[in-house]
From TrEMBL:
Lyase among keywords: no
Pfam families to which the protein is assigned, alphabetical: Myosin_head (PF00063)
Name this polypeptide is given: Myosin motor domain-containing protein
Span of the signal peptide: none
UniProt domain Myosin motor: residue ranges: 1-160
Keywords, sorted A to Z: Actin-binding, ATP-binding, Motor protein, Myosin, Nucleotide-binding
Organism, as annotated: Vespula pensylvanica
Keyword Cell wall biogenesis/degradation in annotation: no
Amino acid sequence: MLRILATILHLRSININTFDIQNEDDDNTEATFISFDKHLLLISELLGTNMNAMRKWLRYRKIISMRKDFLKPMNAKQAIRTRIALAKHIYSKLSNWIVICINNSLQFQDKVQCFISVYKKMKRAILDFQRYSKGFLARQRAEWIRCERTAIKIQMNIRG
C-alpha cells in the first residue's frame, strides 16, 4: 500500500517538456518529451513496470480505427491531464481496496440489529419533522437529517 501511495506522490513530480514537431501536413504541432527522470524510474520500480513504456504512454495516445492503430503525440496540457488521470485512477483503486479490507475486518458472524432500529427511528423523526416544520430553519434541519441518514446508511453498509 505504501508503495502505491509513493507512486501517486512521485507521479506529480514527473517533468513534462514540450517541443514543436512538423507532421505530414506541414503543420507545426506541440509534442511532449519526458527525459530520464528519477521519479519515473522510481514509479517504474514501485509498480514493477517498464520505464520506457510508462514514458511512452504518458506522451502518446492510441487511436484505434477499423484498419490501423495510430499513436498520436499529446501536447503538454493533455500529457499533464493524463498524468493526473493516472494518479486519480491509482488512488481510486487503492481507496476501493482499503474499503474492502475495512469491510472484511468489520464483518460479524451475528447480524447487527441496532443500526436497523436507529435507522427506523431516524426515518420516523424525518417523517414527523416533514409533517410539522416550515421555513428556512426547517430546510436546514432537513438537510442535517438527510446528512445523518446518509451517515447511518454508510455505517450499515460498512457493518454488513
